[in-house]
Amino acid sequence: MGVRLAGVRKSYRRREVLAGIDLELAPGRPVVVVGGNGTGKSTLLRVAAGASAATAGSVTGRPGAVGFVPGRVPASTRMPARAYLWHMAAVHGTRHDPTALLDDLGFSGDLDAPVARLSTGNVQKILLAQALGCGAGLVVLDEPWSGLDAAAAAALDRLLVEAASTTALLVADHTGRAAALPGAAVFRIVAGVLAEAVDLPGAVHTVVELRCPGDPAELLRVLPGVRESWLGAGSLTVRVPVERGDGLLAAALARGCSVLAVRRDGARP
Ligand SMILES: Nc1ncnc2c1ncn2[C@@H]1O[C@H](COP(=O)(O)OP(=O)(O)OP(=O)(O)O)[C@@H](O)[C@H]1O
């Protein structure tokens, strides 16, 4: 059994960032979250990893040890790198040598220097080593390729392919590398909920301009297949894969929208 997020919501003050996330994380099906800045990727990852509490909903089946690379460097990294790795290994309750992955990743810094004084790429390698080297049942990685040189990035590709078959994996990534993992399911967060898998390059889309009653964010949660949306003066424009166009139109009409324009948008690069 994997890790299950059900109806997960997260608000900061009155702003709801996650508005009902349902997600299953299990070995063999790495889940990749892509999308624009501020859509809630890091928030979702923190909640899944147990680093932040959901406002509502549940996360069940989370294993005792979670390997987590946060989007921001944690304060504990004032510790020397070696001490930090052993500290994290103790936190994870593992007997694995936490420095073992550093060679694979091409770590070139001083293990006795405080993590915070290492170069950006070497800090990232320390964070990856503690997350991937502890035998965790769940690994959550926020932009794991960030700051890595080409050799380290390729090494991480290999490590993740290996990890994904035995470990539940949740990755936020804008480089496109995680989406290439075998069996990857790719999602976007649209209006606080997970939207369907992102299309492969070359997919043909329909763009529909609508005038709709009510809250557009609320509507976007129920319109099927939306890949992108734009708010105009009194209109909402959405892009859907061409095969989802009819379903989108039917759902929009059922919600009282009128259709202002429909165009075929051709292949995207
Ligand atoms: N601790 C916090 N307190 C208040 N607001 C927060 C906090 N963390 C995130 N937010 C807000 O929640 C929203 C989602 O942020 P989040 O970092 O999850 O987005 P993201 O998709 O990971 O963005 P990016 O691609 O820029 O990293 C943003 O509007 C952000 O300002």
Describe the structure.
- It is a single chain.
- By secondary structure, the protein is α/β, with parallel strands linked by helices.
- The protein has two domains: 3-190, Rossmann fold, CATH 3.40.50; 202-267, Alpha-Beta Plaits (2-Layer Sandwich).
- It is built from seven helices and 13 strands.
- The strands form three sheets. It has a six-stranded mixed β-sheet, with helices on both faces. It has a four-stranded antiparallel β-sheet with strand order 11-12-10-13, with helices on one face.
- Strand 11 (228-231) and strand 12 form a beta hairpin.
- Helix 2 (81-92) runs parallel beside helix 4 (120-132).
- The radius of gyration is 21 Å and the shape is elongated.
- Adenosine-5'-triphosphate is lined by residues 12, 17, 37-43, 71.
- Residues 3-216 form the ABC transporter domain.
- One of its GO terms (molecular function) is ATP binding.
- This is ABC transporter ATP-binding protein.
- Helix percent reads 25-40%
Outline type: elongated
The major beta sheet can be summarized as: 6 strands, mixed
* N to C succession of SSEs: EEEHEEHHHEHEEEEHEEHE
The number of distinct β-strands equals 13
Distance between the termini: 38 Å
Radius of gyration from the alpha-carbon trace, in angstroms: 21 Å
> Count of helical segments?
7
Q: What is the CATH class name of the largest domain?
A: Alpha Beta
CATH homologous superfamily (4th level) name of the largest domain = P-loop containing nucleotide triphosphate hydrolases
The structural domain count equals 2
CATH architecture of the largest domain: 3-Layer(aba) Sandwich
Enter the CATH topology name of the largest domain.
Rossmann fold
Bound molecules: adenosine-5'-triphosphate
* Amount of beta strand: 25-35%
Strand arrangement within the widest β-sheet reads 5-6-7-3-8-9
